[in-house]
Every structure is written in structure tokens, then in C-alpha cells.
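I can't quite decide. Please look over this sequence plus C-alpha cells:

:::
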Amino acid sequence: MTADARPVPSAQLTELLASALLDEELCDRLFADPERVAREFDLPREEVQALYLIDRGKFGQAVARLRWG
């Protein structure tokens, strides 16, 4: 694996993030209690830790781009 290689996200993580981009309530819950939401989506342990690395501001910018182009 090269230094630039990143692990492939699980289907559960992809579903969670896609859902959170479109669902404001889920997004709020994700940032308020990542552990609980991770359990709801049955995320592997290493991906639960990755949720804490998501920058809420950048996530919000992604949401705005999706909604307004």
C-alpha cells in the first residue's frame, strides 16, 4: 500500500454519510453523538473513530453544494 492509499469505506459508512448529507436531523445526531449513530449503522470500530475526524464546517459546505450547486 502506498502512502497515498486510503482504506475503502464500508457500505455502512458510505450509507451513513450519504444519508447525513441529505437528512439534517441525522447530520445533527451524527455530530452530537457519533458513537450512537455508528451503532445504528453497524460501523466497524475503526470507522467509528474516523467519524470524530470529520470537520462539521466542511461537511456543512458539502451539504450546501449539494443543495444549491
